[in-house]
Amino acid sequence: MIPHQQMMHRITAICLKDPPEIMSVLRQVIFCHGSVLLINGEMPRGQALKLAQEAGSTALLYGSLSEPVQFLSDSTVIDTPSLLQFSSGTTGTPKIIRRSWQQVEREIANYNARLSSNSSEVPIILVPVSHSFGLITGVLAALERKAQPVIVTDKNPKFAAHVIQSTRESIVYGVPYLFHILLSVMRNERAFHKIISSGAPFTGKVFDTVKARSELVIQQYGCSELGCISLGFDPATHADVGTPLQHLEVTVDGHAESPDEIIVMMDGSPVFTRDLGWINSAGRIQVEGRIDDLINVSGQKVIPYEVEQVLLGMEEIQEVVVYRTKHKVWGEAVKAMIVGTSSLSSELAKQWCIEHLPQYKIPSAFDIVEEIPRAASGKISRKWLSENY
């Protein structure tokens, strides 16, 4: 491990696969008043090294703690001990996000106050602890309320299903795609006690199925700069992410027919989320998509999620993602990638859209595939699809 004096006011980059090892390093660095750059444990060594250098790290811990520490030159001195992470990069180049440990502690306190969970409910973490969702609101928040989290790293959904079904009272942390997979292997009528979903909205029939087979569904909304912004208990729709945590204030100028950018205030400073949404009459935030994902068809804006919901109304369609493509005349056009039954065809999908959408929102092309490409986290990057398909 790294000597204590080299941790103080320095950045230690960790790209480890074993969650207990990650937590061990975190505790030691925090104790030494140091800072941590968290890198996904699945990252190739060369890319992890590049990210560590970009952040000005003193050292890189890669793979496991049994491997030698790689010390780096030109390291950065940090005055305030902090947690550093790279943004997901799903809509642009990843950037370094820095949050002080004091800010993280405040998020945890307000998160637990809103969640109102007791130590008897076991958090089951199905997402990487190299991400804020899994680490801060999953593991660290659980430990603060004296609950012992279970971190599942086995990729087999049947293993995760066994853990969930053998735990009487649990809160399962996951992304919509994981819950979709779990529902296919969990045969009992009531699959989950409580779930917390984040990272992307539920799509199509999955939302209704998850609600029907869970005692309580909570949709969590956040961003890299702030961590968790809001919790939506028993959401009415896929877009409903509830009310903000006590230390945050959310403002949106838009409404249901014309959503606008969600702006979050913390300590008098605004964070522009680049998310589109509105606030309903009950004061609950409704997230409709990303500004960066908007498709400009001859000056008319198309929200991809709106088109996806229409397509998911077809019985033959199981999954769909809508993204922008180039067009010689319009500049940009709508394109859809679809997973469906054997009876599905591009002609059927287009006819359905003609019947349910205005002309400019109808996809110019339909790609029928066996599987939609996803990142290791289960997220879909519309930007990546636009550039590669």
From TrEMBL:
Domain AMP-dependent synthetase/ligase positions: 75-252
Does this UniProt record's set of keywords contain Nucleotide-binding? no
Q: Does the keyword Ligase apply?
A: yes
Q: Name one Pfam family in it.
A: AMP-binding
- Alphabetically list the UniProt keywords: Ligase
> What InterPro entries does the entry give?
AMP-bd_C, AMP-bd_C_sf, AMP-binding_CS, AMP-dep_synth/lig_dom, ANL_N_sf
- All residue ranges annotated as the AMP-binding enzyme C-terminal domain in the record: 306-379
CDD domains attached here? AFD_class_I
Similarity comment: family membership: Belongs to the ATP-dependent AMP-binding enzyme family.
Q: What PANTHER family does its record include?
A: ACYL-COA SYNTHETASE, MEDIUM-CHAIN ACYL-COA LIGASE ACSF2, MITOCHONDRIAL
Q: Protein name, please? A: Acyl-CoA synthetase
What lineage, starting at the top, does this entry show? Bacteria, Bacillati, Bacillota, Bacilli, Bacillales
